[in-house]
Amino acid sequence: MATVSVIQSNYIPWKGYFDIINDSELFIFHDDLQYTKNDWRNRNKIKSHAGAKWLTIPVGSREDRLIDEVLLPATNWGHKHWNEIKMSYSKAPYFKSYKEFFEDVYLGQRWSTLSEFNQYLIKYISQEFLGIKTQFINSSELNIPGKKLDKLINLLQKVEASKYISGPAAKDYIDESRFIEAGIKLDYKDYSNYPEFLQLHPPFEHYVSIIDLLFHAGPDSTYFIWGWREDTNCNLI
What we know:
The protein is 40% helix and 15% strand. It is an alpha/beta fold. Strand 6 (161-166), helix 6 (176-182) and strand 7 form a beta-alpha-beta unit. Helix 2 (77-89) packs antiparallel against helix 3 (95-108).
């Protein structure tokens, strides 16, 4: 029995995504779902001198494909994204600590699919930069039938989940009774009260890619995702 989260792979997601990963024993990339355009799968925000700015991988707007079927274009989008990142964060205190890794990801390697690229970045950042021990698998490996909530419940039962961690937005459409029937505890992640840190280009913005936190806080990044809660709990004792 395990604590499980199930989310589509996102492009360099924000810190809340990694907060959920850290709370889970098993994290499932749910990429055998229909691709949706103008979503977090192929884009995210960074903090530039002009404010929050979108970085978008140009994969087209077709929705008649699954997320793990989306091919990456053979264009120079990687160079463009890396140049935008450098312009925005080259003066951040820990930019040089991560520069070699991200430069290689964008310029030194070739990626076939959006899922492959997203999942590599998420797993590497989780394990190597944030020290997360969570196990990762793909939903496609499990060959689970069903659609929407039926598929999610089937997926959780397949991996013998005892608890499911969901993002708070799911409250609007999840039928909680289905989890009770399945004997799975449902927890919604609370994204509130993340502490601010010294961020270039004020005013402060929470809802940007994890790379913003890494470049500004370096080895202290985990404090600003989950470590601060330990201090809060200690103060309540």
